[in-house]
Amino acid sequence: xxxxxxxxxxxxxxxxxxxxxxxxxxxxxxxxxxxxxxxxxxxxxxxxxxxxxxxxxxxxxxxxxxxxxxxxxxxxxxxxxxxxxxxxxxxxxxxxxxxxxxxxxxxxxxxxxxxxxxxxxxxxxxxxxxxxxxxxxxxxxxxxxxxxxxxxxxxxxxxxxxxxxxxxxxxxxxxxxxxxxxxxxxxxxxxxxxxxxxxxxxxxxxxxxxxxxxxxxxxxxxxxxxxxxxxxxxxxxxxxxxxxxxxxxxxxxxxxx
Length: 257
Ligand code: PEP
Fold this sequence. Notes:
The protein has a single domain (about 5-255), classed as TIM Barrel (Alpha-Beta Barrel), CATH 3.20.20.70. About 45% of the residues lie in helices and about 15% in strands. The longest helix has 19 residues, at about 180-200. With about 260 residues, it is an alpha/beta fold. It is built from 12 helices and 8 strands. The chain has an 8-stranded parallel beta barrel with strand order 1-2-3-4-5-6-7-8, surrounded by 5 helices. It has helices spanning about 15-30, 45-55, 80-85, 95-100, 105-120, 130-135, 140-150, 155-160, 180-200, 200-205, 220-225, 240-255; strands at about 5-10, 35-40, 60-65, 90-95, 120-125, 165, 205-210, 230-235. The structure holds phosphoenolpyruvate (PEP). Phosphoenolpyruvate binds near residues 167, 172, 173, 232 and 235. Phosphoenolpyruvate binds next to strand 8.
């Protein structure tokens, strides 16, 4: 059975002091959760301090981005090895905000995924359609392209180290989450693409998270869906109470799945 994964993407929020306080609170309240993988993705400046807080706990560290080269004259970029050295296990790649504001494409996402895997980081690769694409019935075309191009040249062994995050752009930060049916439909579509490329057995092992306005009061119905294996949480991961609520409710809900 796939172990669900809940990751908090803090985006460009939290000073070092605030990050330490938030991660300490989360650690205190979630120490006994063992059926959900918990990941915190603070900004780069807080990675070292959050890593210290969560060392030897049930919480893993993730970064929000990285560059596809491993070192050199790339002012302002961060290499995968640097992330590993501060304790990162995961790295979010191709978040819609990076695609929208920083020119990331399926091709750059693929380069980053390949480098992350080669350097021993586990990519959380984000895919998702924009509102106008959903409204013009292009959702499945967009998702198919994001998944296939993002995973170009990724082999069977490597895909098992990855998490896919389905994040409809119209649901991110809008308070309007996809319904469980809408999300399940796309998750199943993604799993079918994975099955065609990697075989049924492998596709059943790959975790597909949902992201987009996840809150304590909507996580249960989402995570109960067959192909929804957790959540990538933005806004609600910035407050101790709401992130803890999401993880605890998930933990209970998956016992009945
Ligand atoms: C995200 O940015 O990955 C996200 C899902 O944000 P929010 O939960 O705020 O919609």
